[in-house]
Amino acid sequence: MNVHLRYAFYGLGLGFLLSRIGFSDYGELHAMFVFSDFRLLLTFCSAVATAMALYAVMDRRLLLTRKNISMANIVGGVLFGLGWALTGACPSLALVNLGEGKLAAIVTLVGVLFGAYLYPPLARRLLPWRAESCEA
Amino acid sequence: MSWLLTEHWPWWFGGPVFGILAALVWRLEGRFLAVSGSVGRVVDGEDASRRAMRQIAEQQPDALDEALLQATLEAFGEDEVEAARALSEANPEVPSVPLVGPSAPLSAHLTMLVMIAVGGLLSAMLSGAWQPAFGLGEAHAELVAPGASAIVVLLIGGIFVGLGTRTAGGCTTGHGLNGCARLLPSSFVATAAFFGTAIAVSFLLEALAS
Hints:
With 136 residues, chain A is mainly α.
């Protein structure tokens, strides 16, 4: 199957899933963060557990390579967490929110794209650590 | 079965489905399902070095493998490389896992991002909750900022998300789901950092709102 069709399916599935689960609902997300409702946290944990089990079965092992911990993981993580709590968005959730009709997410998305755009120039001077990426 | 469309999924259903999707992407692409990387690719566009890499891969597919092998030999020495080869030959039933599959074209990443929004649209329409409005809901208006004043917060917050996820090398699906499932130390650290910060800030927001 053509790569575009596959990626379209992954996007559709992910967006639909995140919305149905309720990660895109700021109220629910907040409830997870302040521990007043455990549904999303349990969802996340069971997702990790399921993926872990499937990876172990598929690859006969889990560990891929010893990725080194970098300051970038911490600094980036803190920055991201701050943004997440303020906007209720990680890159995917901003898109899901937009699709769901929460139009303010356009602003979030503009911010996310701009922040991503700022990374290469800022990286060398202000954020000089290389994080090994999990990325596609 | 209508709860599938009208109610938020229970944790024992949503979680496993999410995990299955992640594993499926790995199986088919040899890469992690991850969104911030796609955002980065789309925003960076195709610069000269990327184009050159792509051309080399198309015209001389072995050149990259050769270069990688050379680099590996230089880094680890012949003995290590030989030992690794012998190990994998001795264990043919263990599938050799490609550390990373071929990179998808930029247009595929863009497609995926657009379709994530479409997925949200589909979900909202099917659940009958489709009611386009400016805000992010009551909770956000109460805890963060109501109405139009949210614009500044969302813009700045969005910048933190975009910059933060690229700096950390992943987002909630990249580091949080896949990285943790594969026991990557960098992912544990990143996940702890972003979850911990989000938790702290959320408590703060709650305190400030009351």
